[in-house]
Amino acid sequence: QVQLVESGGGLVQAGGSLRLSCVASGSGFSINRMGWYRQAPGKQRDLVAIITSGGYTNYADSAKGRFTISRDNAKNTVYLQMNSLKPEDTAVYYCKANYFDSTFRLLDAWGQGTLVTVSS
């Protein structure tokens, strides 16, 4: 019902910044909560940040003070501003949306991911 498309990944040097975007599209949906996750090769997918419909945010300890999650409800878009990037931030970053579909079911949708590579 909902498709998510991430963008903004790329190759940056340590200390640099990137802003990731995720746009939700479809019909008959209402997004509740959105978040960013990341997965490095050989590792599990971990939460980076979440934001609720009311604007409440929560961050992984590794992201606090460096990353900022925000959303534009009118555009069905969530952003992740990443500053002071470190090599250990290198991963595929995935957008996730928790949403209500047209039959009032609460579902999750995942994007395909965008690769962030931070060089030393």
Core attributes:
120 residues, mainly beta, 7-stranded mixed beta sheet, 11 strands
Write the layout of secondary structure elements.
Elements: E1 2-7, E2 10-13, E3 18-26, E4 30-39, E5 46-51, E6 57-59, E7 67-72, E8 77-82, E9 91-100, E10 106-110, E11 114-119
Parallel strand pairs: 2-11
Antiparallel strand pairs: 1-3, 3-8, 4-5, 4-9, 5-6, 7-8, 9-10, 9-11
Summarize this structure briefly.
This protein has strands at 2-7, 10-13, 18-26, 30-39, 46-51, 57-59, 67-72, 77-82, 91-100, 106-110, 114-119.
| Share in β-strands | over 45%
Structural class estimated from helices and strands: mainly beta
Terminus-to-terminus distance? 40 Å
Multimeric state: single chain
Alpha-carbon Rg, integer: 14 Å
- Uncertain runs with pLDDT below 50, 5 residues or more? none
- CA-based shape: elongated
Mean pLDDT: 96
How many H/I helices?
0
* Sheet having the most strands: 7 strands, mixed
Which series of helices and strands comes N to C?
Answer: EEEEEEEEEEE
The helix fraction, in percent, is under 10%
Count of DSSP strands: 11
Description:
The structure is a single chain. This protein has strands at 2-7, 10-13, 18-26, 30-39, 46-51, 57-59, 67-72, 77-82, 91-100, 106-110, 114-119. The mean pLDDT is 96. It contains no helices and 11 strands. It has 120 residues and is an all-beta fold. Helix content is 0%, strand content 59%.
